[in-house]
Amino acid sequence: MSENPKPVKRGYIRPLDLKHGKIELSHGGGGRAMSQLIDELFQPAFDNPYLRQANDQALLTRPDGRIVMATDSHVVSPLFFPGGDIGSLAVHGTLNDVATSGARPLWLSAGFILEEGFPLADLKRIVDSMAAAARAAGVPVVTGDTKVVERGKGDGVFINTTGVGVVPEGIEISGDRARPGDRILVSGFLGDHGVAIMSLRENLSFSTTIESDSAALHELIAAMVEAAPETHCLRDPTRGGLASTLNEIARQAGVGMIIREDDIPVREEVDAACELLGLDPLYVANEGKVVAICPPESADALLAAMRSHPLGATPRSSAK
Amino acid sequence: MKYVDEFRDGKVARTLAGTIADEVRPDRRYHLMEFCGGHTHAISRYGLRDLLPPGIRFIHGPGCPVCVLPIGRIDSAIELARDHGVILCSYGDTMRVPASGRTSLLRAKAEGADIRMVYSSADALKIARENPDREVVFFAIGFETTTPPTAVALRQARAEGLQNFSVFANHVLTPSAIQNILESPEVRELGTVPLDGFIGPSHVSTIIGSQPYEFFAEEFQKPVVIAGFEPLDVLQSVLMLVRQLNDGRAEVENQFSRAVTREGNLKAQGLVAEVFELRDRFEWRGLGEVPYSALRIRETFRDFDAEVRFDLPYRSVPDHKACECGAILRGVKQPQDCKVFGTVCTPDNPLGSCMVSAEGACAAHYTYGQFTKDSAVAEAS
After folding, report:
1. Is B371 in Cβ contact with A203 (below 8 Å)?
2. Which fold would CATH assign to domain A25-167?
3. Inter-chain contact A275–B371, Cβ cutoff 8 Å?
4. 3-class DSSP state for residue A100?
5. Tell me, what DSSP letter sits at residue A230?
6. What span, in angstroms and rounded, lies between the C-alpha atoms of A261 and A240?
7. B4 contacts in A (CB within 8 Å)?
8. Distance between CA B250 and CA B217 in Å, rounded?
9. pLDDT in tens, B191-219
10. Residue A133 in contact with residue A216, Cβ under 8 Å?
């Protein structure tokens, strides 16, 4: 037995070709190819202590207070659009669902369903953007999963994210709490995301300078909740737009609502695009706006808190 | 938004409504049929009924292309996609129209038929060019406004020798439908549908002009005002109709003078005449068989006629028993008279065609009309 055993020579693995490579079925197969995808792409991008444990699950310490959890699957087409992409959207969408309960988001999970043949360069772009969004929001992606489906059985990439957060003491935000006499506030221009996406759709392409408003709202919401803890409802008017959101709340709370068209902020470009397409801007999706419903006496404080945050710079209020 | 906001000005609308209220005679009612679903939608969306005096009654007409498409025609379209294996290109709002056996284009698509939603006939041509080994059929529906683009597509297909492209033509004509309503027993003999005047669709008249209405304004002594689709356009045309009726006049007047002329768009008319000819009869949902009320593709373009190419037989299929779409399309009933309105039949799950398109009387009433002043008062009392 030799005193200095030769170190075991590890087999050379060719690095992922992140420029020209494509997703193959083996990338979801649980074997070496999948490990490589995780090690060379996902792990470095999302890097944090939870992922570094390299387990199949994240071990989390139970936070104090009430926990909220929300999940959202993202299937947007096109994958890249002015103002964002499916990666940043997957982070923002779920964070906002958690945050509109008044919660502070703590962790995210990410599940990818990739289509065989999807360019690795595009995947890297999406993952980098997603990681940047999570980092900017200060919420780590603590666990994830990747599956690959055969060519033709997916649409490039689908991403599911789940978010967990904790609600501060004394905050009771829920759709059924809207009351007669409450005020309705929105945090800015409506319809930007929907119009930005539609402008790129096949058969419909029109040129516009509108960018998606995709953004993480939890910091704005934290400021709002701090300024007006008695706020009754918060919701992000995503698919279906402001009108569907208010309809949902009206049904949930058993109240009627009156909103003044003149008080609702819509960019002229969005208005024009909607006119052309026969759409109502109130029904068009947003990804970085929040609707708040509060007692009339808190409206001024809430409005001031919104105005002092960059994401709520153009809020309006309306009677209810 | 310039050139749009001006026609939606609430203050001007209230002033106009005030003038109408001043001019209507308290001793009579004014039954005005807005023929087109676009007007039905505008009246509901902008709450115009709430602005107007109770003597003004709107009667919804059959001018919604999706609503009047009979079940048999949708069945044929589904047959094309399912049994003939074609790529069927359809406008979006046709996708959910109920067909026989609880199916629809959307359901057929979910079951595997290759049905694609397009925004124009040009999109369908593009799909045909991109799929040279597949048959591509454009499911053409609509009134006079959508007919010229279909004619252009047919001409282009022939010029390019696009052998795999054909059109399943279902284009219908506004004046014939109005005449049919005026000649219906409900209007002529029974008097169950009182009709004093018509609000005519301006977009149709940008193509056909205002002239085609002159005949029945004279023959049936009913005033017609060609109106735009913005709320102020509709209110102004109501005022024009009130004035005509007060004066005992029955003329064709043009409220939409910013785009409509007496003759219309002669070039578009020429294109349509080159490609299409009148059908002897055509079934409308609600109106039944209406003579000379639709167009078919001319002999010279028959190679591109899907009905000829696939030898499509036509089978007439009655509407669902509980559905009142037929009566609503004839102006005999209102959406709220229908037992299934808002219960079994909703925009998400339409039983009848009037609940499908945003222009359908039921869909407009479901979306906007349920919560107006009148209905709130009715519910409270």
Report:
1. no
2. 60s Ribosomal Protein L30; Chain: A; (3.30.1330)
3. no
4. coil
5. T
6. 17
7. 275
8. 6
9. 777 899 999 999 999 999 999 999 889 99
10. yes
Distance CA A227, CA A231 (A): 9
Among candidates B129, B117, B138, B94, which has minimal Cα distance to B307? B138
Does residue B45 carry a pLDDT above 70? yes
What contacts B236, CB < 8 A, 6 or more positions away? B16, B227, B255
Contacts of B1 in chain A (CB under 8 A): 268, 271-272, 275
Over residues A208-232, the pLDDT tens digits come to 788 999 999 999 999 999 999 999 9
Is-contact B341 B360, C-beta < 8 A? no
Binary contact (B1, A271; C-beta < 8 A): yes
Q: Considering only CA atoms, which of A174, A173, A186 is closest in space to residue A252? A: A174
CATH (residue range A175-318): 3.90.650.10
> In B, which residues are within 8 Å of A203 by CB distance?
118-120, 123
B358 touches chain A (CB under 8 A): yes
Q: Is residue B379 predicted with pLDDT exceeding 50?
A: no
What ipTM describes this predicted complex?
0.74
Q: Does A152 touch chain B (CB under 8 A)?
A: no
Q: Which residues in chain A have their CB less than 8 angstroms from residue B371's CB?
A: 256
In angstroms, the CA A245 to CA A175 distance is 10
Architecture of domain B5-63+188-254: 3-Layer(aba) Sandwich (3.40)
If you search the block for the tokens 């999970």, which residue do you land on? A109
Give the total residue count for chain A.
320
